[in-house]
Amino acid sequence: MTEPDLWATCARSLSLYGPQHRAPRTAVERWVAISIQADVYGDGGAVRAVEDKVARLLDKPAAVFMPTGTMAQQIALRIHADRRESRTVVFHPLCHLERNEERAFEHLHALRGRPVGSENRLVELADLAAITEPVAALVLELPQRMIGAQLPTWPELVAQTTWARERGAAVHLDGARLWEAQPFYDRPHAEIAALFDTVYVSFYKGLGGIGGCVLAGPADIVEEARLWRTRHGGLMFAMWPYAVDALHGLEHELPAMASRLQQAVALAAELAVEPGIEVLPDPPQTPTFNVVVDRSPEALDRARSQLAAEDDVWLFDRRWATAAPDRTRIELSVGRQVLGFADGEIVALFRRLRELAAARQSR
Predict the structure, then answer these.
(1) Which residues make Cβ contacts (< 8 Å) with residue 251, sequence separation at least 6?
(2) What mean pLDDT, rounded, does the chain reach?
(3) Residue 25: pLDDT above 70?
(4) Contacts for 98-101 with beta carbons within 8 Å, 24 or more apart?
(5) CATH of region 36-252
(6) Edge-to-edge strand order for the sheet containing 137-141?
(7) C-alpha 85: how far from chain center
(8) What angle do CA 53, 285, 154 make, to 5 degrees?
(9) Tens digits of per-residue pLDDT, 289-298?
């Protein structure tokens, strides 16, 4: 059986994105439950409802629903650059725009990406201070997902956004996981969003939706973004299933984020004392963190498949190699899916994963 087949058939999974966690939550069920009218090409109904709800939550004048964050962020940065005498966009080296979008910002919008700082840590004010060229926009990702969902301190965040504004640059928030970041700061979403000109938030990450996102900001920027959404081919005839799913997540999943952070901290503390396992960051700053296991990626993949076949459990889906060939970073997120595991069971499964990987790695 292939890995996708194993993943799909396992009764339990620690992945937030596994099919097991989507099946009970269909958009049609929610459509019937909340009785919101459908949109027509993004106008009205559930789409307008979710736009209004996010705009209020972030205290932004307006918001526009888009099918993907890739689209939303490119559009935001294009608009910011068109209003300034620079095409340079500054971001972390592991920014999604740089690593996962085939440099679309460059090919589609003639923007110039300027990675700043080190891949292995957060951007620091000193990194920004070294930039001498004009900047159109600074992009900050909260949290910085690829390094264990780390977050800057509040004073550092304020200092960095102030640096951009003093230079006449726009400040854009890659807030795909803003919902998970908010408990760390213990400030309202609107207070965090106030530091940024535009904010992108996702509905399929911590909120568990089927897709879609919102770009929020000043009314004139949002109206221009609607034009760019059409130019990008993102104006679908009916987007209500995504919007209904988003409304459900905002109502039922968002209030759980603080408790999920507490669960993540407790789980990480249990994992951190296991031999051959390291937690990054320690303690976690969001419900998502990294577990570094002293086994090779290939050995862990095979051990994961063995666990899936023997125990009917899928332990992880996202992992990355490290500088050391026998150490692997695994992404672990605490969400609704952990309710299916008994106390101590996740730690025991990681212990067994490491033991199985050791046997396979020695062959």
Answers:
(1) none
(2) 92
(3) no
(4) 99/146, 100/70, 101/70, 101/74
(5) 3.40.640.10
(6) 62-66, 213-217, 198-202, 170-175, 137-141, 88-91, 112-115
(7) 30
(8) 70
(9) 999 999 999 9
Quick: pLDDT tens for 163-175: 999 999 999 999 9
Q: Which CATH code for domain 3-17+256-361? A: 3.90.1150.10
And the tokens for 115?
A: 């990675």
Four-CA torsion 70, 74, 76, 81, nearest 10 degrees? 170
Q: Transcribe 206-247 into DSSP letters.
A: TT--SS-EEEEE-HHHHHHHHHHHHHTT---S--HHHHHHHH
Q: How confident is the model at residue 41 (pLDDT cuts 50, 70, 90)?
A: confident
The full length of the chain comes to: 363
Nearest in space to 314 (alpha carbons), one of 323, 324, 325, 303? 303
Token pair 């000109």 in the structure block, residue: 197
* Cα–Cα nearest to 331, from 298, 301, 292: 292
**pLDDT tens for each residue of 109-128:** 999 999 999 999 999 999 99
Residues in CB range of 192: below 8 A, 6 or more apart: 142, 173, 178, 181, 182, 185
Where are the chain's structural domains?
3-17+256-361, 36-252
Cβ atoms < 10 Å from Cβ of 183? 17
Taking a C-beta distance cutoff of 8 angstroms, is the pair 87, 56 a contact? no
ω into 281 cis (within 30 of 0): yes
